Amino acid sequence: MKKAVLGFVLIISVLSVLAQKTTASLRLKAYQRGYISGVAPTPTVEIGGKETAVKPTTHEPEYFIYLLANKVPYLKIERIWINHQLYLATINKVNEKPVVLENGKKKDTLIKYTDEMVWQIKITGKDKTGMTPKKDIKDQVKENELVLRLKDQNDHVFTRTQKQITVLEAVRGQ
Predict the structure, then answer these.
(1) Average of pLDDT values for 15-31?
(2) Under a CB-based contact definition with an 8 Å cutoff, are residues 118 and 77 in contact?
(3) Residues whose CB falls within 8 Å of the CB of residue 90, separated by 6 or more in sequence, listed in order
(4) What integer is the mean pLDDT of 47-67?
(5) Using H for helix, E for strand and C for coil, what is the string for 2-56?
(6) Which residues have C-beta within 8 Å of that of residue 124, sequence separation ≥ 6?
(7) pTM, 2 dp
(8) Residue 110: which of 91, 102, 70 has the closest Cα?
(9) Rounded distance, CA 43 to CA 131, Å?
C-alpha cells in the first residue's frame, strides 16, 4: 500500500514538473495601414498663372504589431526590423480582447478573443544608429518583412519573423 502511494506521488511530481517546463509559445501578428490624403495627387499646381512642380506627400504606414504569448510573463524588445530597416519600439500588455481597429464605419478584428497574453509592439521611430544586423540574423532580415528579437525574464532570446505584413485598407486623413 505504501509503495502504491509513493508511486502515485512520484508520478504526480513528474507530471507537474513536465507541465511547468512547457515551452513558450510566441505567435506574431503584424498589420500595416496607409493613409489617403484628402486632396487628389497632381504633379503640378498653378499659382498666379505659373505652374509649379509639387512633391507628393508620402506618409509612413502605421504598423499594428501583436505578439500572442503563452507561458511568458515578461518580454523586452531587443531589436525590430521592418522592411530591412531597424526601428525603435516599446512593448505593452493588451488588456482588452479582442483587438479591433476602426476604419470609418468598418471594423477590422486584428486579434480575436484569446486566453493567451497579448502584447502590443508600438513603433516609436527609426533607429538612426546605423547598426546592421549581425551574421546570425542577417538572412532572416533579408528574407522577411518583419523580424522581432525579444528577451524574457531569464534572458532567453526569441526571434519571430513574418514573411509578409498584412496590408489593411487605407484610411483617409493624416
Answers:
(1) 67
(2) no
(3) 77, 121, 122, 124
(4) 75
(5) HHHHHHHHHHHHHHHHHHHCCCCEEEEEEEEEEEECCCCCCCEEEECCEEEECCC
(6) 87, 88, 89, 90
(7) 0.74
(8) 102
(9) 36
What does the alpha-carbon distance between residue 6 and residue 16 come to, in Å, rounded to a whole number?
Answer: 15
Q: What is the predicted pLDDT for the residue at 20? A: 47
Which grid cell sits at 78? 531587443
The tally of CA atoms less than 13 A away on the side-chain side of residue 3 is: 0
Q: How many CA atoms lie within 13 A of 160 on its CB side?
A: 20
Least confident of 10-14, 25-29, 107-111, 118-122: 10-14
The pLDDT, as a whole number, for residue 105 is 82
Q: What is the identity of the amino acid at 160?
A: R
Span 116-125, pLDDT tens digits? 999 999 999 9
The Cα–Cα gap between 56 and 90 comes to 31
